[in-house]
Write a sequence for this structure.
């Protein structure tokens, strides 16, 4: 194969050909390898993806800080990648991880998805908390 | 509370206040409510999110077709939402779904994440197929 991969190459081929968006990013979903729960959704640029593949630990790109970021670099809450998958059109990554420490979320919780959205109602929505804090983010991040 | 929600309101409050991006979208991860596997990652605009909440079935916004889209509207492979979660900064949604029919992926597979990315190697990456086709997309979509 030479030149630009075709849609068929991208969907049915064995070549990793990530479709980065206009900002150079793909979405990445991290799930807990044991429970299957979604821990977080973040973004990877080409460098973060390369480092994650090479090291087996999760690297991301922070849109707010505009910088490469190793998960756990300040908190110690690193993510060991058990398996990485790529989706059909190669614009999203799924990693199953072993989450070190008490949680993945900067608010001090295991998962970033700690609130449920009730279904079946029209109008204003009141969120329901499903997870409490497992650590104090102040002592973990403000060092 | 009046006016624009603060970061604290967004992270610790009970008000659903989705942070749509410049294109008016949030990312949505759909996982299989039974197996926990990630089925797909797609996007929702405000209307898709509202309809999903009200109907309990997954609606998305197609960036390529630039239109609202009910999952399964042409294939019959609808997604009944068992639970919806929102993340800390409210720019991502997680839905646990019961996937109707043989799969979620337009390529004819159960999940869009049917290829694994091997870890621990530098250089070119060869994907490994982990899921075969469960239906023929031609007969399902080209009607």
């Amino acid at each position: 194969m030479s030149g630009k991969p075709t849609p068929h190459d991208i969907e049915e081929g064995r070549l990793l050909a990530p479709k980065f968006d206009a900002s150079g990013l793909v979405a990445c979903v991290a799930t807990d390898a044991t429970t299957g729960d979604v821990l977080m959704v973040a973004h990877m640029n080409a460098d973060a993806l390369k480092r994650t593949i090479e090291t087996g630990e999760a690297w991301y790109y922070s849109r707010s800080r505009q910088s490469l970021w190793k998960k756990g670099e300040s908190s110690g809450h690193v993510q060991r990648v058990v398996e990485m998958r790529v989706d059909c059109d190669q614009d999203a990554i799924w990693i199953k991880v072993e989450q070190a420490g008490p949680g993945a979320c900067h608010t001090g919780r295991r998962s970033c998805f700690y609130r449920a959205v009730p279904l079946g109602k029209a109008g204003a929505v009141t969120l329901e908390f499903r997870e409490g804090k497992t650590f104090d983010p102040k002592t973990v991040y403000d060092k």
